[in-house]
Amino acid sequence: IFIFVNEALSVLLRSVHTVIQRTPPQLLREIVLVDDHSSSAELKEHLQSFVDETNAQHGPGFIKVVRHDKQEGLIRSRVSGWRAASAPVVALFDAHVEFNTGWAEPILRRIKEDRTRVVSPSFDNIKYDTFEIEEYPLSAQGFDWELWCRYLNPPKSWWTLRNHTAPIRSPALIGCFVVDRKYFEEIGLLDEGMEIYGGENVELGIRVWQCGGSVEVLPCSRIAHIERAHKPYTENLTAHVRRNALRVAEVWMDSYKSHVYMAWNVPLQNSGIDIGDVSERKALRSRLKCRPFSWFLSNIYPELRSYSDTVAYGVLKNSLRNDLCLDQGPDTDNVPIMYLCHGMTPQNVYFTSSQQLHLGVLSPTIDDDDNKCLVDVNSRPRLLECSYAATKHMKLTWTFAQGGAIQNLESQRCLELVESRQSEFTFQLAIQDCTGQKWTITNILTVLPQ
């Protein structure tokens, strides 16, 4: 099943030609093309004549075309492709891929052994500007707390096998996958309450694992995929991914849902984001008797960092200038600044029960670079890796109560604003004897330590 909207015809045909050429004919019953309301002329007549020629050669209905009369988005398009399919196993793919020799047999064998396996091939890259194929290292597929999917180092259990053909246990899916057609329905297909694009592959991975199935990547099945410079769907993709991520959090993640809200920097209560009705998905979880998210974290994705010690998060403001927020500043400097508030990742602040102030992105896994903490270095504010600063016994603990001072526990000096002609905004950060300046943070999860 290929989903496309305004895909270049040559790229779509490359996907179709290679799946026909590199799949044994007895294993390929049909190809379903889902056109999610393309406006491109070549995807009408030219594509239809190619379909007619191919069906004349391979038999009627070998290629089926499903055309949407309005744009449904990738998620609902995949489900409409599934509805048109009749073969016992379905492969849901982007329409900008190239199949390698022998891609199908290892996957079908794994699903034949256990129909509750959802299997992804291993991906290589097709460079979007030259169309050369670039080999990618073998990876599992996971996600960060915003629920963007990402490649992961395979788990230690896989490396200890010393068998580079062994299936790789994977917490989630990057996007393309193969599944038993009826099992896909039993497990709840994709969440059609999600909008447009993003998060559905992470939701599927979490759901399959928590509800008794498994997800794996097969090293011997290789597909090359174009990572496009521009997605054909909506300009404001981030808003859709955020909304979809909050749906996943509410249905599947129990108390860990706070991590998704924190990562997106939105309040847990009254977020102002309409995620739609999730009652059907919650009923599905209950009907399938699925495990808690804590089980998933312990057993399937122990690499994902937990931030359960966060007591407050959001943007941090000083009452002297309500339009400025604490900001991590240029990446290379390790010097925090005050900057006009925009609420994006560089201004995300997390205050922990161990009285550390983290600034910037939440490191998704234990293998990633560590988070940056605010440290008093010779009475200058600096951002250093938290684990490094703790190991070196640096001054990284702060007392902070909402509407109060931010005071370093060891030096007893405060993070404050001082007037400065050098600064773009007439104020810059300093660590000095406390003068009673007041700071506020957007969201408080638990009462701040006094």
UniProtKB/TrEMBL annotation:
Signal peptide: none annotated. Its cofactor is Mn(2+). GO terms for molecular function: carbohydrate binding; metal ion binding; polypeptide N-acetylgalactosaminyltransferase activity. It is found in: Golgi apparatus membrane. PANTHER family: N-ACETYLGALACTOSAMINYLTRANSFERASE, POLYPEPTIDE N-ACETYLGALACTOSAMINYLTRANSFERASE 18. This is Polypeptide N-acetylgalactosaminyltransferase. SUPFAM superfamilies: Nucleotide-diphospho-sugar transferases (SSF53448), Ricin B-like lectins (SSF50370). It is a single-pass type II membrane protein. GO terms for cellular component: Golgi membrane. PROSITE patterns: RICIN_B_LECTIN. It comes from Iconisemion striatum. Coiled coil: none annotated. InterPro entries: GalNAc-T, Glyco_trans_2-like, Nucleotide-diphossugar_trans, Ricin_B-like_lectins, Ricin_B_lectin. Pathway: Protein modification; protein glycosylation. It is an enzyme of class 2 (transferase). Its EC number is 2.4.1.-.
